[in-house]
């Protein structure tokens, strides 16, 4: 689903978002605030996402655990029967 | 200068205006401008003391009215009467006319007298009532003593006959002789020559009273006392006092007089009591009827007083505001200078250029209303003074702007860091506070405060809540960004969020049992990377910290680099705006190259290392920390190669960085010296050396070319466009404050400091951003610990106990989550984010040293002073 192309696509997406935000910001005295806030937010969020993505793109270590019960192999499974 | 659109990006354009106001409408004009709140009046009579000014008399009168109104307010509060809150007045902002003010002054004068007389008579009546009540008690209690004492006279007499040492009645016996003593019960005290004193005394003084009496009279007294069960109200202090009734029998006039003196000096009240029981009964009746009458009168007085105060309370808030406004109008008028020849008031005021139209139309309105033929003239004057800095904020941006203003006022029209702070401040906060759940709590709290904004604003707020309320929009942004970073960190109350299929699958080795010492290692799903945020499979793993530490450390460095690069770019915009190319070539460009060739390169290597699949190409991934250190220690040699040709690239980068240092050091000072010398050679002199012309003189003497004469392209000078200049010597400390002599050594020292600071700060500030990593790690670990110690344990129980445990532990967990993780950790993350902005980011571009714009505005005035009314 996600691979190296995601980076490029996400940049394009952010650029489009910024363009829309720039032109669609409400006119008036708060236009600058709208533009700056939307564009900066978009890039800050993108940067955070991109860093996280890159860090996991070619991971150098894999998760290890010694307490995993085989029935939980698929993550937090739905409980069967007992509530507690 | 063409009026451009005001925005938060830089402070708005200001103009120094000169107003010529006809004397008759001075008050109305200032009042209207106060409503507008767009002008900051300069003091044109700085040498005149407060007592010599024109409108001192008016201000004194209003002070008196204010004092009277405050007296009403304390009376209203004392009597527990509600005051109509200011919000219920529809026209609080309407300017009062002069007659209204006069009426108000007269009215409050007469009301004060009335309230005072009512209060006086109420207090007198109350005192009388207390006295009567005390007297009634004395009569009641003393009666009992008399009856008992009379019954005992016989015994007393006998005891004297038997034992000759009874001190009290020895004299009695001697005086009356033993023959008369037999007349028994009916014998009165007066016959026995025994006098008495009856009264009340505060209970806590009783012991001292007894002791003093005993010592001074040497035991020649017989004392009876009893406690009054009900507390007596002291009318002066309005406190309850417990008192005792006492009756003292003693022998001889002098002794009685002495007792009276002692009791009075100890604060006792002495009342007349008749020893005859019938007379006493009459007295009690009389006292009772008088008490009855008195309480009627008291009730009436109290009702009148309350009615009067309620009446006042209905409009008191408005009166107070009117008085405050009026007073500030006269204080402002005192700053004007009076031109007696033309019978006009002259004022100088800073005004946002874009508000000039509004000001003019307001003045026109005032003029029309007054029906005056002489118009109010508004002149724009050019000046060399630095205008005050004014950023127009709204309720959303106000909090963020306050963050910046708390550090320092920006220079006039420099880039205002408040604008990017709207995003960067909450975002850096969120990097440290990243947890979806905690962010949601914060965002919801902020939303609640925004939704109930009006009622909360009117209510009383304590300090902590007041602060949170003031920053509610900051909190909202912080909460929203924290939810986002929480999703990225894949944390919601320390638990994972499995939004997408994981990129890891568990493959259990043979013979694996949980806890038998074997570890399961996850296998990567081929060609798939977790699309959003951290993979949830990292949660609860053994090497979770190993991975997230490396990730968060690099994240902090990249975030810091991005933030600082952004801030450094703002200094370029500043230099462009102030038309100071030397700041671009001497500061911005070398600084940027220095920063990028070291830390920009570090960020590049981080990303490069991430994007290479090291196992696929069969290489050992190199350590970046060592690479950066050896880049400076052994330029050119690379032990573990990151990419081919790394050695030469790093040598070039190091050289590039090193070369920037002398450029930073010398370019700007030497350029400035050259420019200065050139200007001098052309015969220009500093503006301070020219004759000064008062702004009050109408002839706009032009001194074309006078500006820029000192040749120093300081930011403020280059801002002035040509035309007439007036150096003002009125107000303030003259006009020459920003035209100090060019001094090469000073410029050089300044630049040396700047260079050293910049280069060292590049290193230390980048390291400083590692706090993002440290705090986010601490936050995550703390929330994991909290979960496992409370709710995590609760799930171990079964049955009814389990239900109870989950409930109890949930309460504990939730309370601690809010108190510790959201409030405490949130405050700490906020302070760190604050520091990153003030120190790390703003040091890259912020000039500061501006003067804040403080307009004459009723709104601001009432916010500051009318707190009790709101």
TrEMBL record, chain A:
Residues 1-21 form the signal peptide. It is found in: Endomembrane system. GO terms for molecular function: proton-transporting ATPase activity, rotational mechanism. Keywords: Hydrogen ion transport, Ion transport, Membrane, Signal, Transmembrane, Transmembrane helix, Transport. One of its GO terms (biological process) is vacuolar acidification. It is a multi-pass membrane protein. It comes from the Eukaryota. One of its GO terms (cellular component) is endomembrane system. Belongs to the V-ATPase e1/e2 subunit family. This is V-type proton ATPase subunit e.
From TrEMBL, chain B:
Keywords: Coiled coil, Hydrogen ion transport, Ion transport, Membrane, Transmembrane, Transmembrane helix, Transport. GO terms for molecular function: ATPase binding; proton-transporting ATPase activity, rotational mechanism. The keyword Transmembrane helix applies. Residues 696-721 are annotated as: Disordered. Residues 101-128 form a coiled coil. It is found in: Membrane. The chain crosses the membrane at residues 427-452, 473-494, 555-573, 585-608, 651-671, 770-789, 795-823. GO terms for cellular component: fungal-type vacuole membrane; vacuolar proton-transporting V-type ATPase, V0 domain. GO terms for biological process: vacuolar acidification. InterPro entries: V-ATPase_116kDa_su, V-type_ATPase_116kDa_su_euka. It is a multi-pass membrane protein. The keyword Coiled coil applies. Belongs to the V-ATPase 116 kDa subunit family. Essential component of the vacuolar proton pump (V-ATPase), a multimeric enzyme that catalyzes the translocation of protons across the membranes. Required for assembly and activity of the V-ATPase. This is V-type proton ATPase subunit a. It comes from Friedmanniomyces simplex.
């Amino acid at each position: 689903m996600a691979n190296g192309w995601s980076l490029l696509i996400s940049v394009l997406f952010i650029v489009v978002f910024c363009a829309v935000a720039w032109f669609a910001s409400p006119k008036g005295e708060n236009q600058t605030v709208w533009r700056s806030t939307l564009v900066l937010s978009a890039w800050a969020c993108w940067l955070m996402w991109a860093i996280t993505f890159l860090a996991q793109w070619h991971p150098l270590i894999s998760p290890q655990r010694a307490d995993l019960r085989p029935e939980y192999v698929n993550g937090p499974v739905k409980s069967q029967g007992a509530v507690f | 200068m063409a009026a451009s659109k005001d925005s938060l990006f830089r402070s708005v354009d200001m103009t120094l205006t000169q107003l010529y106001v006809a004397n008759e409408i001075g008050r109305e004009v200032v009042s209207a401008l106060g409503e507008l709140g767009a002008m900051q009046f300069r003091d044109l009579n700085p040498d005149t003391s407060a007592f010599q000014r024109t409108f001192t008399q008016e201000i004194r009168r209003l002070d008196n009215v204010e004092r009277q109104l405050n007296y009403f307010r304390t009376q209203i509060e004392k009597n527990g009467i509600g005051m109509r809150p200011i919000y219920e007045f529809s026209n609080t902002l309407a300017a009062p006319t002069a007659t209204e003010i006069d009426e108000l002054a007269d009215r409050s004068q007469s009301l004060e007298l009335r309230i005072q007389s009512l209060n006086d008579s109420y207090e007198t009546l109350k005192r009388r009532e207390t006295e009567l009540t005390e007297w009634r008690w004395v009569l009641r209690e003393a009666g009992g003593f008399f009856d008992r004492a009379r019954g005992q006279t016989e015994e007393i007499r006998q005891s004297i006959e038997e034992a000759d040492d009874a001190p009290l009645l020895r004299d009695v016996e001697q005086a009356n002789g033993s023959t008369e003593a037999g007349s028994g019960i009916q014998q009165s005290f007066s016959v026995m020559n025994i006098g008495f004193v009856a009264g009340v005394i505060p209970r806590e003084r009783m012991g001292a009273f007894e002791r003093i009496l005993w010592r001074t009279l040497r035991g020649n007294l017989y004392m009876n006392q009893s406690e009054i069960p009900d507390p007596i109200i002291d009318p002066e202090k309005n406190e309850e006092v417990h008192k005792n009734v006492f009756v003292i029998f003693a022998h001889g006039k002098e002794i009685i007089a002495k007792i009276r003196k002692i009791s009075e000096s100890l604060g006792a009240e002495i009342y007349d009591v008749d020893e005859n029981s019938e007379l006493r009964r009459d007295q009690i009746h009389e006292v009772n009827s008088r008490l009855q009458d008195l309480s009627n009168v008291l009730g009436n007085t109290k009702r009148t007083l309350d009615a009067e105060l309620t009446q006042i309370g209905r409009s008191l808030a408005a009166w107070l505001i009117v008085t405050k406004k009026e007073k500030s109008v006269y204080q402002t008028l005192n700053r004007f200078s009076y031109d007696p020849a033309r019978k006009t008031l002259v004022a100088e005021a800073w005004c946002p250029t874009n508000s000039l139209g509004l000001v003019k139309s307001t003045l026109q309105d005032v003029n029309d209303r007054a029906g005056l033929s002489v118009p109010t003239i508004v002149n724009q004057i050019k000046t060399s003074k630095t205008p005050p800095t004014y950023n127009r904020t709204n309720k959303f941006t106000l909090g963020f702007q306050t963050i910046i203003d708390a550090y320092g006022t920006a220079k006039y029209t420099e880039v205002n860091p408040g604008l990017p702070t709207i995003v960067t401040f909450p975002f850096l906060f969120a990097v440290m506070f990243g947890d979806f759940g905690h962010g949601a709590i914060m965002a919801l709290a902020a939303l609640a405060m925004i939704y109930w904004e009006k009622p909360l604003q009117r209510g009383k707020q304590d300090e902590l809540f007041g602060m949170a309320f003031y920053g509610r929009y900051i909190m909202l942004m912080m909460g929203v960004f924290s939810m986002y970073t929480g999703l990225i960190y894949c944390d919601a109350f320390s638990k994972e969020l499995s939004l997408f299929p994981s990129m890891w699958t568990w493959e259990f080795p043979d013979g694996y049992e949980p806890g038998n010492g074997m570890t399961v290692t996850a296998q990567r799903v081929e060609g798939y990377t977790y699309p959003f945020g951290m993979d949830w499979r990292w949660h609860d793993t053994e090497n979770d910290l190993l991975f997230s530490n490396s990730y968060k450390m690099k994240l902090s460095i990249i975030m810091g680099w991005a933030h600082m690069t952004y801030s450094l770019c703002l200094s370029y915009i500043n230099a462009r705006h102030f038309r100071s190319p030397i700041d671009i070539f001497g500061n911005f460009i070398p600084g940027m190259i220095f920063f990028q060739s070291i830390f920009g390169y570090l960020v590049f290597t981080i990303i490069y290392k991430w994007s290479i699949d090291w196992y696929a190409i069969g290489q050992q991934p190199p350590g970046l920390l060592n690479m950066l250190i050896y880049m400076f220690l052994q330029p050119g040699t690379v032990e573990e190669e990151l990419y081919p040709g790394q050695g030469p690239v790093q040598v070039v980068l190091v050289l590039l960085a090193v070369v920037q240092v002398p450029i930073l050091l010398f370019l700007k000072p030497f350029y400035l010296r050259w420019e200065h010398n050139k200007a001098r050679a052309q015969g220009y002199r500093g503006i301070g050396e020219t004759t000064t012309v008062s702004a009050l003189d109408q002839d706009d003497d032009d001194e074309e070319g006078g500006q820029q004469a000192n040749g120093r392209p300081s930011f403020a000078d280059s801002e002035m466009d040509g035309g007439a200049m007036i150096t003002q010597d009125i107000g303030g400390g003259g006009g020459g404050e920003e035209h100090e002599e060019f001094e090469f050594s000073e410029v050089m020292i300044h630049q040396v400091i700047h260079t050293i600071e910049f280069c060292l700060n590049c290193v230390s500030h980048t390291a400083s951003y590692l706090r993002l990593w440290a705090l986010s790690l601490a936050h995550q670990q703390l929330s994991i610990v909290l979960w496992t110690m409370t709710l995590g344990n609760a799930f171990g129980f079964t049955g009814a106990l389990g239900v109870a445990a989950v409930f109890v532990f949930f309460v504990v967990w939730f309370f601690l989550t809010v108190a510790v993780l959201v409030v405490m950790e949130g405050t700490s993350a906020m302070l760190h984010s604050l520091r990153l902005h003030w120190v790390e980011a703003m040091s890259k571009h912020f000039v500061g040293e501006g003067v804040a714009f403080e307009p004459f505005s009723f709104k601001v005035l009432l916010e500051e002073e009318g707190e009790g009314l709101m």
